[in-house]
Structure formats: structure tokens, C-alpha cells
Amino acid sequence: MPDHSNLKIWHNGELINWNDATIHVMSHVVHYGSSVFEGMRCYQTGNDSAVFRLRDHVQRLLNSCKIYRMECPYAEDQLQDAVLETIRFNQLKSCYVRPIIFRGYGQFGVNPLGNPLETYIAVWEWGKYLGMEALEQGVDVCISSWNRFAPNTLPALAKAGGNYLNSQLVKMEAVANRYQEGVALDVHGYISEGSGENIFIVLNNVVHTPPLTASILPGITRDSVITIAKDLGYEVVETMLPREILYVADEVFFTGTAAEITPVRSVDHVAVGRGRRGPVTEQLQKEFFNYVEGKKQDRFGWLTPVYSSSDKPALKGN
Ligand code: PPE
User: Fold this and answer.
1) What is the pLDDT of residue 1?
2) By percentage, how much of the chain surpasses pLDDT 70?
3) Which of 185, 287, 292, 298 is the most buried (most CB within 10 A)?
């Protein structure tokens, strides 16, 4: 990891040094994966910066808490303010934002209820998730031999730390076989999602994506792309998709906060379309970046300004 020691991390209402944000090895989360978290991005928008869909990310975080019976001590607007404060304090123009709430150090044993909740918000500059070239050239992926978890096992709607053990298996298998990413099927054999991305398929100019019932994380980028695609006049269908549609699709792409919109150029060594980014993907990418970077009017209310909305001094160096 690059040196982040100059950054401050928000912890239970205070800003602390990056290097002081440590926990005890006997914390509940270390043994049992009891955390919920978010990932959002702050983009530079002309003279200001803005967090993309801050409210929706905070709401998903609070939903994850609710599913796991975590009583978050902070209200929605307090968490939103905390995110903005952390970015401002660190004077970042663009960054990734990782709020995390977990069961800390208290009682030992599976029962989580005797452990205090700890809330942290870290911010740092995080570049392109699947490599520099990925956004233009696309990535090579495989279908994973690992399925996404079955309904009523690990709740897929929660963005919980423990869920990412499944993602790690998918990712490690893909990387071991020299793919950039793996796509998991659900337990019924339908397409679910990548280890850290939702997936879209373009076939005959219709945009398809698996529904929430396919054990996916309800991605906020996914929702944004559905909105943008419909706005551009595309038909968008949320439906169970068989594996082989990936081999005959005109275009395939991933969506996610970290991955943004990343084209998929091959699946299991079968070229997708012409084996490079397709025109619909390119159009959606362009439109997406226009919105997140504030180049297009914020018609959907997706941007929360970071600096101009505050009484704090404006960002230096802009
Ligand atoms: N599915 C999974 C499993 C997932 O982890 C993500 C985000 C998504 C879909 C897309 O969701 P959204 O970001 O709301 O559009 N993965 C986050 C973490 C990646 C990581 O390696 O850490 C992210 O993209 O921030």
C-alpha cells in the first residue's frame, strides 16, 4: 500500500491519524467478519468536488446495519456530514471513500451483541480498479467455478465484510488463471455478478442486467446506468440471464464504484462482439462520466458538493 500517513481517518466522531486507526486482534470483526461498509467516489467537478450519490450510499450502509442488527449511533445526515468533513479536512479533490462499521473489542464468541460498534471513514486517492487500460480496452474474464451465495444464507443486499470471502475466491481463481476478473453464477446457474462489480449485457440494442433476486449487491452504479440508459432511450431489462448469453452478447460491461463502467472484451476466451469496447458501452461510459464530473446538469440529484457547500475555506490550489 502506498504511504497514506498524511491522511486523517474519521473514527466515532473524531479525526485521527491514518497510522493510529488500528484495532485489537481479538475484535469480533477479525474472527467473524462482522462489518458492513460502503465504497463511494468523490470526483472533481470543475472548481469544486462532489460525492456521487452520497445519500444512497449512506442509506445502503444503514440498511446493511439493520440487516445485521447493528444499531448505528449516527443518523443518515450525520454520516453524510462526516463523509464531507473527512474529505474536506484531507483537502482531496477526488478520492475513494470507505465508511466501515464493525463489531469491535468486547466479548469473545460468535454472539456479536456484547461488542461495541466502531465507525470509521477513510478517504484516499484510488485509481483505476481493473488497470489503466481497462476502461478503454476492456478486460478478459472467466465464469467462476464458485457460485454466489444462495438465498437465505448470506444476505446479498447487505454490503457486509463476510460476503467478500466469496468475492475473494472468485477473484483469486480468476487471477490464478490469468483473467482480470471472474463472474459468479447464482446457485441456480444464472448470471449474478463479478467479485466487486455488477454486470450488464447488450444484445440487439437492449440492455440487460440480472435482477436483485440473482444474489447481487444492489449496486448504485448499476442503478445509475439503468437510469442513464433509459434516459438515452434504451430498453433496459432486469431478468435472470443464462451463462451462454455472455458468449453471444454484442457487448458486456461491469459497473461499480471502483470499476466505474468497465467493458468486458472476452469471457472464457470467447470474444465478446468484436473483442473490444462496444458503442453502447462507450456511450454509457461517456454519459456516466459527464454526470459524475458535473459536466452535465445534475438532473437526477446525484452530486453533493464538497467544498462550495461548506463554510470552511475553499480547497487550496484550485
Ligand atoms: N457487486 C459487488 C460484489 C460489489 O462489491 C460492488 C462494489 C458492486 C457490485 C457495485 O456496487 P456499487 O459500487 O454500489 O455500484 N464494490 C466495491 C468494493 C470494491 C473493492 O474491491 O473493495 C466498490 O466498487 O467500491
Assistant:
1) 76
2) 97
3) 292
Among all residues, which ones are annotated catalytic?
159
Among protein residues, the one whose CA lies closest to atom 11 of ligand 1 = 219
Of 238, 249, 243, which is closest to residue 216 (Cα–Cα)? 238
71 and 177 housed in the same domain? no
Mutation choice for ligand 1 from 63, 95, 198, CB with most ligand atoms inside 8 A: 198
pLDDT of residue 311: 62
Ligand 1: residues whose CB is within 6 Å? 39, 167, 193, 196-198, 217, 219-222, 255-259
Lowest-confidence region among 115-124, 129-138, 212-221: 129-138
Taking the centre of ligand 1 as the mean of its atom positions, its distance from the CA of residue 149, in whole angstroms, is: 16
Residue 317, pLDDT > 50, answer no
Mark 254-288 as b/e (b = at least 16 C-beta within 10 Å).
Answer: bbbbbbbbbbbbbbeeeebbeebbbebbbebbebb
Question: Are residues 144 and 269 part of one domain?
Answer: yes
For residues 115 and 170, state if they share a domain: no
DSSP letters spanning 41-65 = EEEEETTEEEEETHHHHHHHHHHHH
Quickly state the pLDDT bin for 312 (edges 50, 70, 90). low
